[in-house]
Amino acid sequence: MTIFWQILFANIILVFVLIGIHEVGHGVMGLIAGIPRRSMKIRLLTFPQQVVLRDEQDWVSVSNYDRYHSILDKYVPTNKGKYLYVSGGFLFETVFLVIFSLILWRYSFWLYASVSSGLSLMMFIIYLFAMDIPQSQSLKKPWGDTTILFSLAKKPTILVVSAMILIRVVLTILFLFERT
Length: 180
Description:
By secondary structure, the protein is mainly α. It has helices spanning about 1-35, 65-75, 80-105, 110-140, 145-150, 155-175, and strands spanning about 40-45, 50-55, 60. It is elongated.
């Protein structure tokens, strides 16, 4: 029964860490894309967790799609820069997961490595099919990272999403069946 509680608490912590790393990825890539540091703020205690952008005196949430994207257009005028900013969360989250899982596996915590990868896979699938796509269809415009990326560039987004899923599946299976 102890292993159950360890995995449960580790998963709860991991969910928050992955979300935090994801948002930091947006922030770092936003800086690279041209958004000034003083014009971005990471909000982890809101839903959705997000990077809000400053519009003169106001902080604008991604939930206010039209206003948020008009501010983003001002800071990042190219689709390439916007793609970099939006995909930064997925990139940082995936790199962190791979490194974290490999460290766990290296030190013989193969079960935790497998569960971490599996949890990340479940989080992404739930996000994609229970939140992002349905909300986007309901609003008739992009809503979350994946649908925004898809609106910017369809083929690269299909590759990014496929790679994210494939990496998580491979890690989960690899660590589950490689117990040493």
